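Structure (tokenized):
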């Protein structure tokens, strides 16, 4: 499942084109996980994901794109669903696998580039993006949205939990409703079912940061 084979030895980006976030940060995503948990890694699932899961919002095979250290994937898997979490950060994936073993939860974590999800050769009924979409600049979104479409079954559901631009105390990379609607259109294979105000908990915000919880359906 790993995409590491065939990539350049010693290349911190494993042959990937660095994302806008990585170019800005001057380091690959993996470095964020090397010195303890980064601000978004709160050691528990996001409350928004727990709520939607408790409402039966996850069904079929589930993909968590940009799973980090796996708290959301682990929560959904603990409910009995088949879950694959993918990320480019090997350190995060190692932590996620350790948690799965420690907690006795059956879940799969694999290295994969969210821009190349078709390489998984799998399709999912429910796809989760918790904090990944908002890290991509506008010019990266069409390729990411197409990649998501390539692995989502017809009438499947994509959930995007991202920072919103409606403050106060907005997180980094705030996204507007209009940007979400512009990214997921019928011409890209999607229709936006709902965009609701929500919160993303972080290690830096007492009560989380303003967020959108978007429910997006694959055509
Ligand atoms: C803000 S973090 C959110 C992590 C996790 N979803 C959570 O809620 O804790 C974004 C995650 O996306 C991953 N990521 C960034 N670009 C990626 C890409 N092109 N393919 C796969 N994962 C990526 C990062 O390594 C990081 O773990």
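Design, position by position:
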């Amino acid at each position: 499942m790993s995409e590491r084979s065939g990539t350049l030895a010693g290349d911190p980006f494993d042959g990937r084109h660095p994302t806008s976030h990585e170019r800005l940060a001057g380091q690959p995503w993996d470095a964020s996980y090397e010195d303890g948990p980064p601000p978004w890694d709160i050691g528990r699932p996001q409350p928004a994901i727990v709520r939607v899961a408790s409402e039966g919002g996850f069904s079929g095979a589930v993909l968590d794109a940009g799973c980090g250290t796996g708290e959301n994937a682990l929560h959904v898997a603990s409910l009995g669903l088949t879950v694959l979490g993918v990320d480019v950060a090997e350190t995060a994936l190692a932590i996620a696998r350790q948690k799965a073993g420690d907690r006795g939860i059956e879940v799969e974590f694999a290295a994969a580039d969210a821009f190349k999800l078709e390489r998984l050769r799998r399709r999912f009924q429910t796809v989760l993006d918790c904090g990944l979409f908002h890290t991509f600049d506008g010019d990266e979104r069409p390729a990411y949205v197409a990649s998501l479409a390539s692995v989502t079954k017809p009438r499947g559901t994509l959930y995007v939990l991202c920072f919103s631009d409606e403050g106060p105390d907005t997180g980094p990379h705030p996204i507007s409703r209009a940007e979400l609607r512009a990214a997921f259109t019928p011409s890209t294979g999607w229709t936006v079912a709902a965009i609701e105000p929500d919160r993303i908990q972080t290690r830096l915000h007492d009560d989380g940061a303003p967020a959108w919880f978007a429910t997006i359906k694959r055509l």
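Reviewer-requested clarification: The pocket of S-adenosylmethionine is lined by residues 19, 29, 40-41, 66-68, 72, 86-89, 92, 113-115, 130-132, 135 (CB under 6 Å). The helical segments are 20-25, 47-54, 71-78, 90-103, 141-151, 177-183.
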